[in-house]
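Below is our example:
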Amino acid sequence: MVSDMERIIESVLQGDQDSVQLLLDSYNTQYAECFFFNNEVQERKKQRQLEEFRENKVRDYAPNSDSDSDDDEPDLLLRQRLATALLCFISSRLQPAVLRVCLHTLRILSRDRQALGPMVTDSALFTLAHLGGISLQQACPQQEEESADRTHSQSYRRAASTEEDAKPRSVNPVNLDSTHVAVEGSATINGSVHHCHKWRGDGGHVVLARGKKDTREENSEEEEKEEDEEVCRKEAMKVLCNVIYNSPRAQERASALSLLQGLWVSLKQGTWSRAPSSAQFYKLRLLFLLTALRPELRLQLQQERGVSVLTKALEQCLAIRWGEGYEVLSDSTTPMSKEMSQDVVEILKTLFNIAHKLHRQEPDEEDAALYRHLVAVLRHCLLLSCDGEDTLEEVQGHTVNILSALPLTCLDVLLSVRVDEASHKWEGVNMDCVHTLLLFMDRRLNRGQRLKEKLTPVLNLLTESSRVHRETRHYLRHKILPPLRDVAIRPEQDNTLRGQLVRLMTHVDTDVKHCAAELLFVLCKENVRRFVKYTGYGNAAGLLAARGLLTGRRNSSAGQRASQYSSDSDSDTEEYREAKARINLVTGRVEAEQPDPMEGMTEEEKEEEARRLIGMINRLSRDQIIQPMALTAEGRLAPLWGQMRADTLEEEEEDSEEDLDQIE
């Protein structure tokens, strides 16, 4: 392998394009699906560490990722040399096929975090951006970059040693711009000085006018040239995405080079054109990465009217037709294609990056109109059918994330749609969107994976919508908390939506537990008695304790929230009324009668058993195994001994005051 890579480097240095293409084609085929290039070294390293662990029973070092390797690994140095040579090579005039195969090799190398040194320099980012169709306004800092290139090529040290260690993913995206100005620089590779080009601006070189040809041949040549350029654009964007994703240094330099500004201009041009390029997806992916990894770029994009432009891009991607007001005319018979869904997902993810804090703000009239417009588009996304269940799940998941981030006052658009015969309706209101959210929540509940990430957004969205919109709450209560009939099983043992949510009320993850309990509490109009009725006191105790409602009485804040709800009654079924007296409030079901454990015991034996029980509780409390708790006057739990001590002090103070009164 070492000799093969050295042959590739030598061919690159000689500028033999045919040889380079042949050798790189073979290399790319061999490593097309390779993410780590030091498998053998890693296996030996892991085996050595395992043997040391078995011998010493101590794990002195655990690699952060499979890409960790020794500093003197020869293959790593060769990959860095190859990346340096290729970055210089692609800056010269190449045949489209040769450029494409070089960029493919760079994409493979960009997956290795340890070999990113040559690709995180300003000149490398500048070159890749221009090849990807992104015009950067500022000039490339030549002197700094030439020094960095010499450092990487001469010493071949490991680059990006402080990078995050995680399995790199292949982030797929390049634009071959036929008009450019190049500034010559040099890099030392393998002991020789070779010229490379650094991009500097959007100027153009002179192109001779063509001779007269047959029109069809010209069109054919132009189409073929456009296809080649488009492939190269996409390939360069893939490399750029990998580099930005894998390197914090590249993220920092991209921000300093105003990469986002050039990318934003390119995306807006594609959005407003009738035929956006196929490389648009990779530009959207890069936009998502930049806004996800650099907080200052999120703020910058928000100030650049990012929500408005991305909403327009989403409309164009979905070919939306508008009806009256905020109503979108949809064609439910045509499912969303896989290619379209990829663009939609990237736009939705970027929208969430710049809009995730909007729910904390009170929008003015202009912003409210913009957000309602976006909500109408998101409603359309939510109701679309897709090619494949996984695609549908992904599109709906990202749509829910954004809806949960927008101001609640703008979500009324979800319900303000005309009702037709096929609609799910409740009290004369179109409930298609709420029904879709309910089905989405049900699917996520059944999967039971990564609940905090996957489930809490939809739970929060349904909770806040129910709190604000009366029709939504009534519909969800009808679906989740129908009138009780079967009271023979515990609420958490039920297989209905209610049972699944009640089971989450005792989940180990605090956020998941709180979100599930909050939804059920709001559906019960924050009424403690009704909440305990549907969930059981044992399951409800966590939320009630957190809110200071364990006594069953509303505190002042709960009373204010409860006043927002209508005064409709909670009618009980006949089955529930018959069993109500026998329901155990703690478990929420009718329990079988248990024999009295003290039956047949004398009073002295009962007192002795009580003393033994008190003694065991005292020992457990002294050893801090348990901590007895009691309710305060505010309905919150507090340590029992602290409360008893406070009561004792109050009694002593009262006694001392009485003694003083008697003396006087």
About this structure: The chain has a mean pLDDT of 78. The CA atoms of residues 242 and 495 lie 44 Å apart. Residues 610-652 form one domain.
